[in-house]
Amino acid sequence: MKQKITLLFAFLLLMTSNYNYAQEKTCGYLEHMQEKLQDPDYRAKYEARQAAFQIEYERLLANPQARLQTIYIPVAVHYPNGNESNRACLVDLALDQIRILNEDFSATNGDISNWTAASSNYPGVNLGSIDVQFVLATTNHPTGIDPDLIEGEPAVTIGENVLDTDSRFSGYQNFIVKPIAYLGYSPLGGQPSNGNSVVMNTNAFGSSGAGCPGFIPGAPYNLGRTVTHELGHFYNLYHTFQGCGSGDRVDDTPALASSTGGCPSPGSVSSCLPTESALTMNYMDYTNDACMYMFTEGQATRMNAHINTIKDDWKTDVLSVDSFDINKVYSIYPNPANDEINISLTSNAVKEASYVIYDLVGKPIFKGDLSLDSNIQSRKIRTSKLTNGVYLLMINSGKLSATKKIVVRH
Ligand SMILES: [Zn+2]
């Protein structure tokens, strides 16, 4: 009981002492949590999650090598005010946002190269990434909602009143896109089995060029980074500007008293300590989408710990991926690949097979035969025409399939 009170007190203290409105970019997670914690049932679950998180966090801090196995996170996207006639566009918008999330959380976003020059201002700060893959769910959709939710098609609801407590979508990483008073909000340390959702404004979902009628990403928050930021809260990250006291509970992010907006040059903004600069390019500050591009190693550890504590919450039957252990059957190298990647048979478990390479939003890029036998032990797949980034290699053999993340870097 004492621990519960301490946890609650710590949270309320954070909310009251560092209450922080910024003009630039508005995230409503504090207000959202303040409201949610009024509910004793929600509060009890929140405290239990935080207690479990703390144990896992300390375990990971003590064992920096303990990394996530790749976790495939099933995503559902909801447009309560959307128009069914725009479905194709709204699905593409969802896929665009998922691509951004996959890039940002795996640190394969194009603009992360800015860190090379910026990092000299931040000694001791390293880039962080987590090994998750967000995939739009396609199978076993909840029934009794949106008749246009078709088996095999993406889990995107349109014109349905899906709330951030909707139990029908428990076990998904839900995004609800609708008009709200903020750019976005999320629970802190959310729980998929409770149907917890990230809620986004209609002008802060997806990137410019991918908008649909009523859902146009608005500059300067038009690169999908607000969703990265909100999902950071869902995985238990505070703002980097959580205050000069206990800060954001991450060692390698300089503590800040107030948020940063616009697009400051690296090292130009002070932190709480005169010897450290504000990490304004961090996703958990309020700078323009074009000027934020990284999580730190410490933030990644914190997110890893939260994801480990909720790992059994994800629905497993909503992605059209069945599995065998790809690494026991094939040797796939080099990875990262430059102009080609080799797939060699290391076991006789799978002979007749085919492969498909998908980009991170699930669009097939190319496919081919992968049948190997005693005469043909290896095949090369040319990757020279792929742009730099992360792809999914799926190998299918009969009813079995397996995927492996491959990285292309020229
Ligand atoms: Zn926020």
Tell me the radius of gyration: 22 Å
Relative helix content: 10-25%
Number of domains: 2
Largest sheet: 6 strands, mixed
Helix and strand pattern:
HHHEHHEEEEEEHEHHEEEEEEE
At the first level of CATH, what is the class of the largest domain?
Alpha Beta
Q: Using the alpha-carbon principal axes, give the shape.
A: globular
Fraction of residues in β-strands: 15-25%
Bound molecules: zinc ion
**Count of β-strands:** 15
Count of alpha/pi helices? 8
Structural classification: alpha/beta
CATH architectural category of the largest domain: 3-Layer(aba) Sandwich
Detailed description of the structure:
Strands 1, 3, 4, 5, 6 and 7 form a 6-stranded mixed β-sheet that branches. A 4-stranded antiparallel β-sheet has the order 12-11-14-15, with no helix packed on it. Mean pLDDT is 87; it is low at 1-24. The longest helix has 23 residues, at 40-62. The protein has 2 domains: 2-313, Collagenase (Catalytic Domain), CATH 3.40.390.10; 326-408, Immunoglobulin-like, CATH 2.60.40.3080. The protein has helices at residues 2-17, 29-36, 40-62, 87-105, 114-118, 225-234, 297-309, 326-329; strands at 71-79, 127-128, 132-136, 156-158, 173-177, 184-185, 197-200, 295-296, 330-333, 340-345, 354-358, 364-369, 378-382, 389-397, 400-408. It contains 8 helices and 15 strands. Helix content is 24%, strand content 19%. With 410 residues, it is α/β, with parallel strands linked by helices. It starts with a helix and ends with a strand. The chain binds zinc ion.
